[in-house]
Automatic annotation (TrEMBL):
Name of protein: MOSC domain-containing protein
Transmembrane segments: 6-25
Domain MOSC: 177-334
Any one GO molecular function term: pyridoxal phosphate binding
Origin species: Leptosia nina
Keywords: Membrane, Transmembrane, Transmembrane helix
Amino acid sequence: MSYRGSYTSAAITTAGLAGGAYIAYHLYKEFQKPKLPEQWTQAGTLKNMYAYPIKSCGPVVMNKAECSILGLKSGWLRDRVLMVVDDKMNFITARAYPELLLVHPSVNGSVLTLNHCDLESLSVNLAEVVALQAPKTATVWTVPVPVYDCGWEAAEWFSRLLNRSTTSFRLVYYASQNSRGLRSSTNKIYKFTKNDTGALPDEVPFNLINEASVDELNSRLEDKVTHRNFRPNFVLDGASLKAFDEDNWKFVKIGDNIFEIIKPCTRCILTTIDPETGVRHTKAEPLETLKSYRQIENPEVRKSAGNSPRMGIQMALRSGPGGFVSLNDPVYFA
Ligand SMILES: *[C@@H]1O[C@H](CO)[C@@H](O)[C@H](O)[C@H]1NC(C)=O
Ligand SMILES: *[C@@H]1O[C@H](CO)[C@@H](O)[C@H](O)[C@H]1NC(C)=O
Ligand SMILES: *[C@@H]1O[C@H](CO)[C@@H](O)[C@H](O)[C@H]1NC(C)=O
């Protein structure tokens, strides 16, 4: 990670002279920040944008969104701020419950509506969920997170969807404006800051995929996939882009928003479940093919990633929050 060796030198005005400790503190803070690139190369444009309000459930297509520390946002529509938990308040995902992928949430004002072809739609007013209760603690990847419970109707809806006999599952809503805590193992290799974990995603608040990489993968597959198998937030497309160009980038800029690439996205069996049907591929494709040529080579990184192949990049916001991204925005890399 040599680029992390180049840090900004602190530019500190000492007006007011609050004392050496103050200056030292700010020098320290500045020293922590990676230097943002000044030279950018255009890679293409933003072709698709998605938020997944409920972890492991279907996407909501976005045309314009705000970039927040916790991910894409448009009013109450935010990326991965809800999840389904079991009776021990531990998260569940489509890896074990593929049916979740066929839940298509929509958000209108503060009202979240759950849609699935076999069930009657159900609406939950998130503003009421927030106003009426004190947060409880749930767990995602062993990390405790504060959540609001979305009520018994949503609990019953998901329990019927996944089991149809007992009320074993509940829908919960992330109850913090800050990123969730880091997993203790996370920072052995990658340098996450405390702003880089998002609300409830697996790893980071922003994921980008290059359409040229999906095309290249498809050229090796009998059963074709789409970028939707990889659940990206951003889909990048451009005539000059080659497959896996993104492997060598350090930063990405979309519109005026700058993202640092924290790590490659290492892929699991979720990619082998058809996002339109919820059916698992009998030969575990495209994962098996990806494993044949996209495994991590760096031995230290390989220790934690195992044989999970890389596809797409995991990013965190480095420009200030509140900037907008829109479809067709130019996408740059450095
Ligand atoms: C959104 O909610 C408003 C107010 O309840 C309603 O008038 C409007 O029809 C809803 N829009 C959609 C797309 O459902
Ligand atoms: C449904 O619930 C029953 C009873 O709790 C349990 O034995 C079974 O494993 C559950 N099935 C699924 C798909 O979760
Ligand atoms: C986290 O984000 C907040 C809000 O933008 C910012 O004030 C703070 O400096 C950030 N912290 C780090 C460690 O980047």
